[in-house]
Amino acid sequence: MTMGERIYLYDTTLRDGAQTQGVDFSVADKTAIARDLDLLGIDYVEGGWPGANPTDDAFFADPPQLRNATFTAFGMTRRPGRSAANDPGLAGLVGAKCAAVCMVGKTWDFHVDVALNIPRSENLELISDSIRLIRERKGEALFDAEHFFDGYKANPDYAVDCLMAAFEAGARWIVLCDTNGGSLPDEVERIVRAVAERIPGTNLGIHTHNDTENAVANSLAAVRAGARMIQGTLNGLGERCGNANLVSLIPTLMLKMGFETGITAEGLRRLTQVSRGLDERLNRAPDRHAPYVGESAFAHKGGLHVSAVEKDPTSYEHVDPASVGNRRCIVVSDQAGRSNLLARFREIGIEIDARDERVADLVDLVKRREYDGYAYDGAEASFELLARRALGEVPDFFRLQSFRVIDERRWNARDELITLSEATIKLDVGSQSLMTVAEGNGPVNALDIALRKALVPAYPDLEGLRLVDYKVRILTPNDGTKAVTRVMIESTDGCGDRWTTVGVSANVIDASYNALHDSITYRLYRASIAAARDGR
After folding, report:
1. What is the rounded CA–CA span in Å between residue 96 and residue 88?
2. What backbone phi and psi angles, to 5 degrees, belong to 198?
3. Nearest alpha carbon to residue 531 among 523, 491, 500, 346
4. Which of 143, 247, 426, 512 has the most CB atoms lying inside 10 A of its own CB?
5. What is the 3-state secondary structure (H, E, C) of 407-446?
6. Are strands 173-178 and 141-146 parallel, antiparallel or unpaired?
């Protein structure tokens, strides 16, 4: 392997990724994601399949202007019985506003015999005719060799003949597809190495699926065997179990294997932002355990680990978190020691002498509360409030007098089932005593709305606050319906910041209120710090 050798990156999030169950991109989504990929430094952005659906038609009718990436359309080789010049599918590709076209074609003799039901020699003509037309009309043609690895295992000579038909017709890239996702890394490496004896690695790509949890490993195996282009998706989106995850592949190629890509060191530092931005657009929580970009990717919980990281981060970190736009997280839990606490204090800007007796008291307090069911390793905001309250730094922005929640379940006059929650809250805000009533879709939603009605006039910073996730965990399942519950609430301020708070109680509504109270207090505390810093 040569240090600095170039690997090309082809993103198919907008086409293969759109086939993920539960994912439905709008034109606006596609435009925004394409621009993020372009800014990141991806070489090819596949926009979709012109003619396949109204969304892709609208997207290709007014494509985004990309500075770095080659905007690419996807389609298939001509149909049997049609010439390339008279095939409506190819006509749509030729007419698409794009600089390159990637076409999928059959390379498994089983599919040619059963699915296409044509002579195998005719399939070779479909491939070569289609590639030749796109090469002449668009300038750059790519060939996705569908089911290649299955086809090679069944009939290697015919599978390679299909590749050669595309290559000799002028395809820039011959992409070997593990369409069913069933191949293993040793198979991929062996087969790609054999293909590289016929087609130069500088023209070979790899496209893998994750059905055996090997999509990334298979892609790297193909690179070791000589392939120099990788197709994949952001966060591993894709049909069934997903495609190769470019978010994991990119830093591995650059930081571990020494390859060059179209992504600069500065671009690599945007990787975490791009990954989490996609999840935000899909309205789903980012995978906190995702390699490189997850919140837990550089989290340290055990006191032994934290003590070593304090001396030298490389003792427990394989790369610098900042190189991929992530950050180190020192977790505070019942396994925490003084090192964890002091490191966490530095992260959140608390200055305290290591010998201060309050440090030992807070370690004991954290351990006692975790024994009671609190989980501060996943609720950093609640921990910060716990620490700052112990140090007398958090004012009482509001004081609850009481709350009451009523749930109603009934049938209306049209015999429709109606479920409604109503919350009444009495609280003090400054010198004012307020009472608010609100209805909501469930007791927690009603409490949230009632609190906002009372607090937003005094604290406009709460206007953008919203809850994005709510989890309930039963801590004492043997106690049945009187079990102790832990509630975790994830919130956002609408500007990209997220935080998690926790509440514990034998009453799930009380636990929810405790977590909600911390969420609101944390937002107000952060706003007050920002205002003091800005002199407002």
Report:
1. 12
2. -105, -35
3. 523
4. 143
5. EEEEECCCCCEEEEEEEEEEEEECCEEEEEEEEECCHHHH
6. parallel
Bridge partners (DSSP) of residue 411 are: 417
* Cα 456 from Cα 17, distance rounded (Å): 40
Of the chain, the percentage scoring pLDDT greater than 70 comes to 94
Per-residue pLDDT reduced to its tens digit, 159-171: 999 999 999 999 9
User: What number of other Cβ atoms are within 10 A of residue 100's Cβ?
Assistant: 19
State pLDDT tens for residues 115-132.
999 999 999 999 999 999
pLDDT higher than 90, residue 224: yes
pLDDT tens by residue, 370-391: 778 887 767 889 988 988 888 8
State how far the Cα of 1 lies from the Cα of 253, in Å rounded to an integer.
Answer: 12
Which letter does DSSP use for residue 96 in this model? S
Average model confidence (pLDDT) for the chain?
90
Lowest mean pLDDT among 64-78, 234-248, 389-403, 469-483: 469-483
Percent helix, strand and coil across the chain, each to the nearest 5: 45, 20, 35
Dist. CA 373–CA 506, nearest whole Å: 11
466-474 vs 485-492, strand pairing mode: antiparallel
Class of residue 173 by CB neighbours under 10 A (exposed 0-12, middle 13-18, buried 19+)? buried
| DSSP secondary structure string for all residues of 277-343 | HHHHHTT----TT-TTTSTTTTEE-SHHHHHHHHH-GGGT-SS-GGGGT---EE--STT--HHHHHH
Q: With residue 48 as reference, give the H or E element that holds it.
A: strand 44-48
Fill in the DSSP letter of residue 5.
Answer: -
The pair of structure tokens assigned to 373 is: 């069911």
